[in-house]
Design a protein that fits this description.
single chain; Maf protein; 2 helices; ITPase activity; YjjX_NTPase; hydrolase; inosine/xanthosine triphosphatase
Length: about 90
């Protein structure tokens, strides 16, 4: 079973991570552990660069807390001039 660290405690984001992993690896193939970590960017990031940095920072911080995991995943929502969007970052430690 894959140990996946979700760098968020947001239930909707955790569910999205679980669905993605089950689609790739099969139902029941992973255990998701949510952790609250800092993004290092404003609460509402603006623009792609800031939003991606927030997701990357969350993954890095989650990895420091749980180095034993198989995967670390973050989804960071941001806004741009004309629309909301998200960045997803995953890391396998390889």
């Amino acid at each position: 079973m894959h140990q996946v660290i979700s760098a968020t405690t947001n239930p909707a984001k955790i569910q999205a991570i679980l669905q993605a992993f089950e689609e790739i690896f099969g139902e029941g193939s992973c255990h998701i552990t949510p952790v609250a970590v800092e993004s290092g960017v404003p609460e509402q990031p603006f623009g792609s660069e800031e939003t991606r940095a927030g997701a990357r920072n969350r993954v890095d911080n989650a990895r420091r807390l749980h180095p034993e995991a198989d995967f670390w995943v973050a989804i960071e929502a941001g806004i741009d001039d004309d629309a909301p969007f998200s960045w997803g970052v995953s890391d396998t430690g390889v």
